Fold:
Amino acid sequence: MRRTFLAVAVLLVASGILAQDATAQSNRMKHQIGLHIGLLGDPYPTLVGFNANYNAMDWLRVTAGYGSISADVTDVTGTGTFKATTIGFGARLFVPDWNFTPVGGISWATVSVTVSGTALLGDVAGFSANGSHMYATIGFDWQTGMGFSLGGGYNMSFKSGVPGVPYINLGWYF
Structure:
């Protein structure tokens, strides 16, 4: 697992170096405020997250988001639903002056878990009760001159029992 994580990190950095035009200026300072949809993990855990972002500096983005994930289960007592609602915020670091860049970040999220309609105990993405966790992000980010943004990578929680997950971000900056 760690070798795979390291291999992905090296590949992303190498692809960013090869794809970058050394004379280009970063679009993060032209379009600083943005919104994005995070698929599979932004904030983490969530299936679809809605996020607001601010490019504070060419190398720093702060982000805040909301999302949820749910699972239907059936046991001897009937059918029920586990649901986790996530609210999180974090920081992402970039290579200055690069529009397509490797990204690394750290985030914190609080997760509210509700269980209804069943006596079965379980969890949603490693959370069986309300709580919070920190997680690291590694991946890539690309912001165009028009404001479109595409990102992807991997989120890895520091909370024991919470699995890592890939993510995709689609957004627009103004």
Summary: The chain has one domain: 2-173. The first strand starts at residue 33 and ends at 39. The mean pLDDT is 84.
